[in-house]
Amino acid sequence: MYVNLIFSNKMLIHSGKIESGFIKWALYGFSNHHLNPEVFEIQPKAKIRTEGEEKNTFAYFKISKLSAGDEFNFRCAIQFYTIPLNIPLISFSFNEYPNQIITKYCSYSKYWPIYDKEIQKIAADLKKESKNDVKKFLKDTYKFVEKSVKLRENMNERLGASRALQEKIGDCDEFSDLFITILRAAKVPARRVVGIYISKNKHEFHAWTEVFIPHYNTFIPFDIALNYFSSISQFHIIRLKMAQSEYPPFVYVKYKGSSNVNLEFTENDLEKIEILYPNE
Q1: Which residues have CB under 8 Å from 81's CB, separation 6+?
Q2: Do residue 107 and residue 197 come from a single domain?
Q3: With CB atoms counted within 10 Å of each terminal CB, which end of the chain scores lower, N or C?
Q4: Is 184 helix (H, G, I), strand (E, B) or coil?
Q5: Per the domain annotation, does 242 fall within a domain?
Q6: Which domain holds residue 97?
Q7: Is residue 241 one of the residues assigned to a domain?
Q8: Per-residue model confidence as pLDDT tens digits over 29-55
Q9: Which of these ranges, 36-40, 125-129, 188-192, has the smallest mean pLDDT?
Q10: Exposed, middle or buried by CB within 10 Å (0-12, 13-18, 19+), for 104?
């Protein structure tokens, strides 16, 4: 499927002065189901860089001399060719995970409270039931999260794993956060993916999970909210992959200026989606 996405954002200065700096804006994340994504328009001029183990691609915009009431507008058009992926799993044991991967992708984060006693017990019980088979553990954890959280769309607040477990409701964020937290508590490396899901009726920001699988030596996708187990559709568009639950953000600014700078960005920067060849 060929699809064009247009993102537009605006930095508004409420108070203070900026002398110089830069804006870092997330464009897209690497995936084998994205074939040759192409930035074919970006305004103003920017440097485009792919960074880190997550291979996220960012645009860097230079900024200078902005005061209260000023705006800095930026816009980007990206074309994707996407395909569905269905990745088969084989049975393997927990001790096949490399220590360096566990260290980075099984750590505590704001929305992933891996030391919560209830979550640790759930993870330990599911791990024991798996009899050292990570494939079974993934299936059982997937089913546990699916049964524990009732889908409620358009949540106004991201609850995090502990509250999702207590309140038993959530949208894609809660499904993903609870899944990641239980996996990390059991020393199964996992990370968050945020992007867009394209459907016939609406296009919306979406979150899901990637889990590291040693025999592939890479992360593979799981989307409990939309019922994708070790698979991903052509309608998933990856924007950003995150090793920590709240970082990196979609947009970030670093500057030199006065101490009273107060600014904001556009929260929803998706301007337009155009599906070019839906059947290819």
Answers
A1: 1, 2, 34, 35, 36, 37, 280
A2: yes
A3: C
A4: helix
A5: no
A6: 85-233
A7: no
A8: 999 999 889 999 999 999 999 999 999
A9: 36-40
A10: middle
